[in-house]
Structures are given as C-alpha cells and as structure tokens.
Amino acid sequence: MLRTDISGATQVSPDTIIILNTIGELFKVYSLATLAFCGGSLVPLGGQNPLEPAFWGKPVLYGPSMEDFLDAKRLLEEVGAGIPVKDAEELGERIIALLKDEDSLVRRGQAGREMLQKQQGSSERTLKLVRKVLPKHP
C-alpha cells in the first residue's frame, strides 16, 4: 500500500506493508520498523542514509550502491548492524533469516544504536582539536 493511499479511515493491520512515497516521514517511520532496507541501493542511485534506522535500533540492509554513504556503511558493518546484499533475491533471503532469528535481529539493531551513541559529541571534540591547532586571534 502506498503512503499517499492511507487516510484516517484506512484499515492498516500489523502485517501491512506500506511504501512511503512522501518526503520527510521516513526517519520517524523507522521507529515502527522491525528492520530496514535502504532503497536506491540495488541500482546505481547512491543509496539512502543507513544511520537513520540504526538510530532506532534497527538492523539495516542495503544493496551494492551505497556510494553516498560509504562511511556510515563501514561503521554499521563493523558492528554487524549493516547487512550488504547483492540483489533482490539475497535481500529476501536475508530478511527471512533475520525475521526467523529474533536474537540476531535485536543484537544487530542494538549494536548499531550503541555505535551511534558512542559517536555523540564528536562535533564538539573536533572543534576542540581545531581550536588547539589554529592560531589565536585577538
């Protein structure tokens, strides 16, 4: 079901698959997900930000085209929260495997969230380092 087809009277069940075809809603919707797939990554479109679902503690799957998010991809894969797939068939297989293994699903999601929490404050730490090396101006 497309997001734009949903109104206040629409009946949505827990097993309903909703495809967001709107702008600005994805980040909050990730909080409701069990896991996430970054669209635009099975084809050469650069992918989507995998840190958004990781923020909510969701494991993130994505295809080979994540050129716009290589650093985020690397960080998530290092902790097991990012799961690369080569094509739609492997995506389906990995989703089914994760849904059958709730412990792995939760562990991977939590690992991504914890990794992001450790990154908090990095801008302030970087600013302090920059101030140390820049000459002081009166």
| Assigned CATH architecture | 3-Layer(aba) Sandwich
Oligomer: single chain
Order of helices and strands: HEHEHEHHH
Counting structural domains, the number is 1
Summarize the topology.
Elements: H1 26-29, E1 36-38, H2 51-55, E2 60-62, H3 70-79, E3 82-84, H4 88-100, H5 102-119, H6 122-133
Parallel strand pairs: 1-2, 2-3
What does this structure look like?
By secondary structure, the chain is mainly α. The chain has a single domain, classed as Rossmann fold. The chain has helices spanning 26-29, 51-55, 70-79, 88-100, 102-119, 122-133; strands spanning 36-38, 60-62, 82-84. Strand 1 (36-38), helix 2 (51-55) and strand 2 (60-62) form a beta-alpha-beta unit. It starts with 25 loop residues before the first helix and ends in a 5-residue tail after the last helix. The model has no long low-confidence stretch (mean pLDDT 92).
